[in-house]
Structure to design on (402 residues):
């Protein structure tokens, strides 16, 4: 098993950051041929997701839609004022799982792995574990 | 470990397709008694979920509610015009995990496994891995 | 591998119940030092999530926002009248995965594990498996 912590720097309040290359780098170093890659986000106003990477407009469209759906003007009690970011963290989820075969992540043709920033900009972390299965 | 790719054909723009029987078929053939079943959707306008299977109205009600919530009329930039489907893919998630005990999926009484089509109709795939644990 | 079923009693229609201490209790009894904890919710109007535990207002704010977003007044066909709860179950997801290191759950500083009740009050269950990895 390979364990690692990846660093992610975000630059905007809401942003999807492509971390696929970082994950692939750890996979290559691990030498694992067949197995599972688990990713975990330890933050409560951020998340992980897998979505299209070919057209960057998909990421900005997703954020545009979320800004429309989320009720930012409710009388929230949480003093930090980032309650919608906490809800988005739960809706997107804290972890992702990707199969590994022939030493490669088994992502779909258009899929990339994204770190989802909902209360940035911040310095963030993502925990990774690559496990071999035969 | 058993690896397989399941085929799913969808017939409508948005649809939840029950794939439980296909997954159970692979479990039976695997002979695994105790372990974990991981499912992975490689598409960026589709997802996987686990929800009620007893009343088909639950599936159509979920789609009715999503059509109400999603902002389909925003000035999206992604030229394919399916940005809401990409957001739904992230909200529902790309993978599911189900425990296996005594050779059976440990789904709840009312639970079935669904492939979620958000930009159909299309021919889709779901990757499956069944892992034995003692 | 340690298997267990945890009991959760909910007291309100919508509620996030912190189950972190129960999970930590099973981890301690398991003696597992390095591995993965998988949690699974077998109900179709409930879910699991990981979110902030320091300020209880985060949980109530999340529920306030969900009540605002969800369309409770659509002409749903499911006779039990809890279709929004089914949708929320799919949006939050049925399972969570947390890494284990040095015998401790690798939750982020502010993270706690929550059972999400969307159609309570009820008596609920959560299935747990703790798996050792070296």
């Amino acid at each position: 098993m390979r364990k690692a912590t990846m660093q992610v720097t975000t630059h905007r309040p809401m942003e999807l950051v492509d971390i696929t290359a970082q994950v692939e780098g750890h996979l290559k170093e691990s030498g694992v041929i067949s197995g599972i890659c688990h990713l975990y986000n330890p933050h409560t106003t951020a998340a992980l997701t897998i979505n299209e990477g070919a057209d960057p407009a998909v990421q900005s469209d997703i954020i545009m839609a979320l800004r429309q759906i989320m009720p930012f003007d409710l009388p929230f009690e949480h003093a930090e004022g980032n309650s919608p970011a906490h809800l988005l963290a739960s809706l997107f989820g804290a972890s992702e799982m990707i199969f590994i075969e022939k030493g490669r992540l088994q992502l779909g043709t258009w899929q990339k792995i994204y770190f989802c920033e909902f209360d940035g900009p911040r310095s963030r972390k993502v925990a990774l574990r690559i496990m071999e299965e035969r």
Q: What stands out?
A: Chain A touches chain C through 31 residues (CB under 8 Å). Chain A has three helices and eight strands.
